[in-house]
């Protein structure tokens, strides 16, 4: 049986604050956002440089394009690699 994943969508001005890890799509901007519980972070805009220091958003998935596209997140103390298969 096929399954369908749907995310919240609508105009950017009408987007609520998304729950932690929840996705939203602004149809007017054609932009995807991920929620932190207190704010919505645009996904894939402006680029993110992953470093050894603590990023401003913990427990958000980052793609480290400088190291072969490794998926990781920062748990507040250290970087944690995520087992992922791309393509």
What is the topology?
Blueprint: E1 8-10, E2 23-26, E3 31-35, E4 40-42, E5 62-64, E6 70-74, E7 79-81
Parallel strand pairs: 1-2
Antiparallel strand pairs: 2-3, 3-4, 5-6, 6-7
User: Total helix count?
Assistant: 0
Low-confidence stretches: none
Q: What oligomeric arrangement do these chains adopt?
A: single chain
The geometry reads as: globular
Give helix % range: under 10%
Order of helices and strands: EEEEEEE
Q: Compute the number of strand runs.
A: 7
Largest sheet: 4 strands, mixed
- Structural class comes to mainly beta
Average pLDDT number: 75
% residues in beta strands: 25-35%
Major β-sheet strand ordering = 1-2-3-4
Rg: 14 Å
Distance between the termini: 22 Å
Report on the architecture of this protein.
This protein is an all-beta fold. The protein has strands at 8-10, 23-26, 31-35, 40-42, 62-64, 70-74, 79-81. Strand 5 and strand 6 form a beta hairpin. The mean pLDDT is 75.
Quick take:
With 87 residues, the chain is mainly β.
Keywords summarizing the entry:
three-stranded antiparallel sheet, 87 residues, 0% helix, four-stranded mixed sheet, globular, mainly beta, 7 strands
